[in-house]
Each structure stands twice: as structure tokens, then as C-alpha cells.
Design brief:
Blueprint: E1 6-16, E2 22-31, E3 37-43, H1 49-67
Antiparallel strand pairs: 1-2, 2-3
Length: 69
């Protein structure tokens, strides 16, 4: 089984949407098995634990692929 990224924090915050309005989001910070730190933003209305894990795993895989083995 491959090692997964570790989610370090989930923070609720307000950000500016592309149209200039305010948007409430959860910022999910994580670290990949090879030590790359990043974060994903998920609108509060869409947030689930499963969606957060899916987005983290997808971005983590991209980082790990760039770094190589």
C-alpha cells in the first residue's frame, strides 16, 4: 500500500472569488510522503471529508510524480 499525504490542518477562512465577491472556504494543508507542503481550497458548501482526501491525494500524486522516486 502506498503512503498517503498527511493532512495537517483544516482552516475555515474567507477569500475573494474570481468575480470579486467573498467566498467562504476550507483550506486543507497537507504534506506529501516526500516532504512537499501544499494546500487545497474547498468551498464550504461542497466540503466533505471524502472530497478533502480525494483532492489532497490527487495533488499529492502530482507532486510525487514531479519529484520522482
Amino acid at each position: 500500500m502506498t503512503e498517503k499525504a498527511k493532512i495537517e490542518a483544516v482552516i475555515r477562512r474567507t477569500t475573494l472569488a474570481p468575480d470579486g465577491s467573498f467566498a467562504e472556504i476550507y483550506e486543507v494543508s497537507f504534506i506529501t510522503p516526500k516532504g512537499v507542503r501544499d494546500r487545497v481550497e474547498i468551498p464550504i458548501a461542497e466540503y466533505t471529508v471524502e472530497l478533502a482526501r480525494q483532492k489532497v491525494d490527487e495533488l499529492s500524486a502530482k507532486h510525487e510524480k514531479l519529484i520522482g522516486t
